[in-house]
Design brief:
two-stranded antiparallel sheet; five-stranded parallel β-sheet; Rossmann fold; single chain; alpha/beta; 8 helices
Length: 213
């Protein structure tokens, strides 16, 4: 049985302790499964008292820029594992865990959905943040630099959604950001589906599976 949202809040809080090191919680799942929605809801509820002790650092900021994807010949597979800077993502997570450089703020890259491009230095992580919530497709992938990503995560939750609803939401998202319906379905059933199948095969490595709406 999937945990309730209040149970997820308790589990997330339990990853940190007073005076202890930072913890990093990963949320993974196939495209359109609701990873970002769950991450944002967790952060919102956990910081409802106004204290910035939780920060949201998505994987999407490590998309390679379109110019580099064109150079590599990978633009038509944007969103696949080799279209991200996995090593850079792992390095940022390690820096966030280590807190060794004394910076008041660590800046993480964001991702602009309208432009479909990463934005450097877009997400400030304050020194007060004791829990980092990160989310992305490939947190449990056991190849290349993605292995180093998993090493930096205290727990990984797999967000699962019924396939028809996941596909509906994914197509709607593509339409929201500029694709017509035909192009949105083609991308969701093509490139996105290949990535979704790859992500689904990592589900057994998760510490927890979160299902439902």
């Amino acid at each position: 049985m999937s945990p309730t949202f209040p149970e997820l809040l308790v589990r997330a809080r339990s990853l940190t302790r007073p005076g202890g090191p930072r913890a990093v919680l990963g949320i993974t799942g196939s495209p359109g499964a609701g990873k970002t929605t769950l991450a944002r809801r967790l952060v919102q509820e956990l910081t409802a008292d106004g204290e910035p002790w939780v920060a949201h650092v998505p994987m999407d900021g490590f998309h390679l820029a379109d110019a580099e994807l064109d150079r590599l010949g990978r633009r038509d597979r944007k969103g696949a594992p080799d279209t991200f800077d996995a090593a850079g993502y792992a390095a940022l997570l390690a820096r966030l865990r280590a807190e060794s450089d004394g910076d008041d703020v660590v800046y993480a890259p964001g991702f602009e959905r309208v432009l479909e491009q990463p934005l450097a230095g877009a997400l400030p992580v304050p020194v007060e943040a004791r829990l980092i919530v990160t989310e992305g497709n490939y947190l449990l992938l056991d190849t290349g630099a993605w292995r180093r990503v998993r090493d930096q995560l205290d727990e990984v939750w797999f967000r699962a959604l019924d396939e028809p609803e996941r596909l509906r939401r994914l197509v709607a998202r593509h339409e929201e950001f500029g694709k017509d319906h035909r192009a949105a379905r083609a991308w969701a059933l093509g490139t996105d589906q290949r990535n979704a199948d790859l992500v689904a095969a990592t589900r057994h490595r998760a510490d927890l599976v979160v299902t439902g709406d």
